[in-house]
TrEMBL record:
Its EC number is 3.6.5.n1. It is an enzyme of class 3 (hydrolase). It is a peripheral membrane protein. The keyword Membrane applies. GO terms for cellular component: plasma membrane. The gene is lepA. It is found in: Cell membrane. One of its GO terms (molecular function) is GTPase activity. Its main location: membrane. Keywords: Cell membrane, Elongation factor, GTP-binding, Hydrolase, Membrane, Nucleotide-binding, Protein biosynthesis. This is Elongation factor 4. Gene3D superfamilies: 3.30.70.240, Elongation factor 4, C-terminal domain, Elongation Factor G (Translational Gtpase), domain 3, P-loop containing nucleotide triphosphate hydrolases, Translation factors. It comes from Victivallis vadensis. It catalyses: GTP + H2O = GDP + phosphate + H(+).
Amino acid sequence: MAKLELIRNFCIIAHIDHGKSTLADRLLELTGTVAARDLQEQLLDGMDLERERGITIKSHPVRMHYKHEDGNTYELNLIDTPGHVDFAYEVSRSLGACEGAILLIDATQGVQAQTVANVNLAIRQNLKIIPVINKIDLPASNLPLCYEQMEEILALPREEALSVSGKTGEGVPELLRAVIERIPHPVLLDERGASALIFDSNYDAYRGVVNYVRVKNGSFKRGTKIRLFNNGIESEVKEVGFFGPEMRADEELAAGSVGYLIPNLKSPADTKMGDTITDIKDPCDKPLPGFKEVRPMVFSGIYPIDTADYEQLKASMAKLQLNDAAFMYQAETSAALGFGFRCGFLGLLHMEIIQERLRREYNMDIIATYPSVIYHVYMKSGEMIQVDNPVFMPDPSGIERIEEPIIDCHIMIPTEYIGDVMNLVMSKRGICTNTNSIDANHVIITARLPMHEILIDFHDKLKSITRGYGSMDYEPAGYQAGKLVKMDILVNGEPVDAFSSIVHVDMAYSRGRQLAERLRDVIPPQMFTIAIQAAVGGKVIARESIKQLRKNVLAKCYGGDISRKRKLLEKQKEGKKRMKLIGQVNIPQEAFVAVLKNSDVN
Ligand SMILES: Nc1nc2c(ncn2[C@@H]2O[C@H](COP(=O)(O)OP(=O)(O)OP(=O)(O)O)[C@@H](O)[C@H]2O)c(=O)[nH]1
């Protein structure tokens, strides 16, 4: 049999928590890729952050070898993908490297919002879908409901469904067989010339830029002279190989395969996800169909706590961006925070993850500002200004109108929660445009909401209202005018630009009061009394004050234990380092986070 016929490239797609990583573990075990004793739980979730949160953030390719009943050994390239709405772009990129997809549905939850979104992505890429009902070991599993939803919502025939338990391994051998039998093997392109699609990249401290590629035509070896289509940069291949699951160098990476390629590039910025790599000696004429450019929707400033870390933060961001195409950054300055970066993210979870990664993987001590969407500000002069940072909101006297981004949100919930969810949507300035029953007990509510309103806690609220059974997905739906104003926060009479936000007029009072109260609680008493004020257009709408106090950390230290005293003083010094001196007031890092969290009113 030809080599290509012995290859299967596939991914696992599912709603969050439906068990992709657990199933991937079973596949690794069953194919002997990783011995059971070496198998840490959710092996492919390599980042600490992923293990801790129990979610997959990055796609992870891995190559397995499997001996089928027909006597042949197949090369299976599996790409594990994340499920959260913010990471849909990771999913679509991974799909471009595959011919098939295992679609997992949790037997106790049924079809959820992301299941639908992922199936649509897979269909658009012409992938063969194998529907798989997972977690059948659980007593609460409801197979008849899953079959019905599969047919009704996804239009997939129930006869095609397999049922498995990623936990016990039941049904997994049958699934491997189905992968071989149902997913088509890769085929060569009609076009001439070698081509490989970059579907992901990473920056390795020792080897530099590592591109994750799917070779479509031709082959790549060490020493192959290559060209990147996007920017024409030429380079030489330093190493090729595959993930088993750790990086293993190989002789060549041939058409049909998934693996990694290390080009001899200095800067992480030289490669771009979705780009095509070709062989200079055997060039292809045109690039492979790339990926839809992802555009960030949420913006926030990220600043080093210590200004001396600016250059290091910049270098860390460049590396992080290589690994995460949807993350954007550019330099900016803030009166309160100094030199830093304006960063763009796909959503709030994406933002949190990037901030955490900067802190943990790159050891950066950072402060992030209140997130914002991009506003279109139409001036009386006829000009339109895009504002992604409240600080740059022009003077209200020159503004004709402000438009904000709107999203169409699809919310899937058990019928009993319709009323509560509609109330939630209305409290966020949204309108429900449609309600569709999908079976006796479930509906999909379609709602139109300002993007800004779902930024902070909409998803959390939806989850708590529906006891975890609600799920949502959204897409941008253009812009709409709104009565929006800039709200400033003044600490000790000075506006702190990092706390500014753009709010709807009707919510300004409650939000201003809430912010002032929260800041009062997190900013420690200082040598003098401090006023905290919220103001709109120069008018103060809320005020709180922090009473003067001198914190004597040694007060509790009786006797003369000098080492204990020193420890306390050092601790206090550490505490100081984590503060930002604004005007004459030390504001702790927590204050910047506090203004973000649990905004009940907004
Ligand atoms: N009982 C049971 N639990 C399972 C099974 N598969 C996964 N789980 C559990 O379900 C939870 C989610 O599993 P993961 O494998 O992390 O899910 P995931 O789809 O990879 O999650 P994301 O990557 O964050 O989208 C974990 O607590 C697993 O232990 C199964 O077959 N049976």
